[in-house]
Structures are given as structure tokens and as C-alpha cells.
Amino acid sequence: MTAPWIDLHRHFPCRNGSDWKESEDSAVFSAGNIPDSENMVQVGNILCSSAREKQLDPRNAMDPAAPWKYFTVGVHPKDAEEAGLGFALLENLLSNPRCIAVGECGLDRLIAGDLRGQKNLFIRQAEFAEEQRKPLIIHAVRTHDELLRIRKEIRPESPWILHGFRGGERKTIAMLDAGLYLSFGQGILRDAANMESFCCRIPAERIFCETDESNESIQRIYAQTASLLLMSEMELRCQIVQNFENCFHRSV
Asked: CA 151, CA 158: separation in Å to the nearest integer?
């Protein structure tokens, strides 16, 4: 079997709390809209809070007809002020065997409010990921130094994965030196020219690819990432399958 594309972080927004199949966006986000979709593994992201339940009803996370094979669940930093209900839901969903990670969660300096609330919420989820022995999917915007300080305090054994990573050489090397995985999304298509000088030094065993909320194809993101890493697309696909199995202890 040919190595599949793995889309590590995919939002499936729905309207008015409806089932994902009823969303006017479902044709875009369904694997059936992707060439060679039978060779695609998508990881859906469930965001838990009273407000975000209106995007995707978390009770539908286990729907066997859903386009995701696995899912992750977390409380986004935007929802730090209403995290109580979301965290209770997170704990419930984490017990599902299709749930493979905590997140996305993290820190975002562009969100209005006190960063301390975000930090407390993030640490709580990071510690919970350690208790559950699950990887952590991280959202970080202009907070990478704070993220590294927290990592030094917690000293996690479970993998930390920076989703939608964008950064120059200094930030990239700092994240890799700290032991994090990097998941590249649509941003790599815009940043490619600025990354050519150093991207080939990024170890492929620390890489994932994702589409997040974009309409961009995962194939195009893989192609650009492979080019920057001086690999063939098939070599990258095989490597990311290995990364996935090593990181999540699940088969594709």
C-alpha cells in the first residue's frame, strides 16, 4: 500500500451546532473531495467550550461516518475565560479510543485579555496530557519564549507538536532544540522563499503537515514541504507515517 497523506490538524466547522454532514462546508472538508481520498488520514480537531460547541457538536466526534479517522480535543486560548464547561467535555472525550491527543491549546498574544489566564489553562491541559500519556497539539502566536519556559518547568515526556508553525531560522532551531515537533500548514506556501536557506536542516523525523481551517489541499502542502526538505514527496509521506506511529502509537 502506498503511504497515505496524513493531515494532522483539520477543523470541520458546522453551522448552528449541526452535524458536520449538514454543514454547507462539508463538501470542502470531506475526504471524498480529495483525489485518492482512500489514501488519506485526517485528524479532526474538536474545540471544547460552550461557544465553540456551535461550530462542531463534540457529541458527533465519534460518528463512524465522519471524515476523520482520529481526533484531538482541547480548549483554545481564545476560550480561557469560559474554560470550565470546555474542560469537563475535554476530559470526557479523551477517553475515546479515537482521541489521540490534547489540543489545540496554547498561548496567543493577539487575543485580548490577561495572558496569565491562557497560561494557567495551557499548563492544566499540558499536565493532563502527561497524565493521559497523549501528545499535546499547541497553538502559539508571539509566545514561543513563554512556551519554552513552561516546557522547562513541566519537563513533559509526551510529545509536543506546534501546529501551523511559521518562523525564521532562530525560532525554528530553538523549537527543535527544545524537542518539539513542527506541523506545517498553509503558511509554508507563503514562507517558502524565506525558509530555503535553513529548512533543509530540519530533521524530517520531527515534521508533520496539516490543512487546519484552510481550503488548501494537503497534497500541495506536502509538495512544498518536501521540496524545502530536499526530499521526494513519497519520501516525506513515508517519513510522516513513521512520525505519526512513533508519536501517537497508532497505525494509519
From this structure: 11
State the residue for C-alpha cell 512556551. Answer: 147
Residue ranges and CATH numbers for the domains of the chain are 5-248 (3.20.20.140)
pTM over cut 0.85: yes
Q: Per residue in 113-131, is it b (16+ CB within 10 Å) or e — as a string?
A: eebeebbebbeebbebbbe
The ranges of the chain with pLDDT < 70 are: 1, 13-38, 49-62, 84-85
